[in-house]
# Entry
Amino acid sequence: MSLENKITRRTMLKSSVLSSAGLWVGGKSGLAESRSPNQKLNIACIGIGNQGKSNLGLVSSQNIVALCDVDESRTTKYGVQYPKAKTFADFRVMLDQMEKEIDAVVVTTPNHSHATIAINAMQRGKHIYCEKPLAHSIHEVREMNRVANAQNVVTQMGTQNHAGENYRRTVELIQSGAIGGVKQVHVWFGRPGGWRRYKRVVDRPKKPQLIPKALNWDLWVGPAPMQNFHSCYHPHDWHYWWDFGNGTLGNMGCHYMDLIFWSLNLKYPTSVETKGPELHPDSTPFWLDCHWQFPARDSMPPVEVVWYHGRDTPQPVLDLGGPKWSAGILFVGEKGMLAADYNKRVLMPEEKYTGFKAPEKTIPDAIANQRMEWVEACKGNGKTLCHFDYAAPLTETILLGNLAFRVGKKIEWDAEKMNATNTSDAAKYVQREYRDGWTL
# Structure
């Protein structure tokens, strides 16, 4: 393909016009129309281990033009599978060298590097699919959403159940008034997460391990404080260290809280308070309870949302007659209740809803899966439903739970000013410092 054709194609894919189709482009509600909706995107995948492998496979119907990972063994392995893709360790080098060839980027890296990667790519006009949670800090979340809107790119946060039949039908039930106005929601995830369920490690290892030859550890650490390499961080367990992840709440909260945000049209909470074990300066808590308060939205009443993780089904759920599930959501309405998880939903008490007729569909079925929903939206075919305008307040709420726990007191949150009105202790957790050589 000639340079002239590449530029023409890139310009065509970025173009946006007003149309009656109402197609989303970018975090806000831009409108798009592609001259050739069936033309394949040129996609770069950054982070191709574990979840990244899955994301790569689910966009493989497009042109995979670049693979980037700090672990050379991964780029070598998948480079064989995608021989036309160029391989890189450093996303900055990839974007510099291939800026005119890449249309869209899939970001599947640890939380602490989401923002630096996504913002760099969006500033170059690239559409972004980014895994949850959107970023590591509230400031990063706001910046990602701001840049997405400024660049008018198509965005999607990776909460795969958002594209599922069960979540979409549950949203319709709640919004149709099947259980009446909802003033309280309980959401729980029983397991503390990953390796920590078996190895109750909280302190940083004092003895470093040998860095694997294929791994560029400096690039993996990226903007976070430098730490000695250890398997307690890489390849998966970074989730449970403040420097790199956001704990079980950050890892699982966006999946479960997503259904609540969507059903109840939530945005920013006005306050949050937590209960948990003693704060550790380095590692995240094994168990945690969070109470968020949200204001009224149009005809919907104020609502309290309560999160629990690290234990069995919470007693308040059982006291209400809720199901004894290992993880789930219980909407408490004025007329009844609705319990749901990833794959099922139950109106309660069940005898009251015998013969109940579900409302008509108002949310269209997804195009194959959440990744392809994003791909098609990039080409002007439909819209993303977990775009950054939606995903940013959801992620911010999750991060506020961790912030309140780390501050050790109830947080009164002023979303407009992005600060806690009742304490100055929160500021250091709203925006973090970056290691030398790294910026947004």
In short: Confidence is low (pLDDT under 50) at residues 1-12, 14-35. The two ends are 33 Å apart (CA to CA).
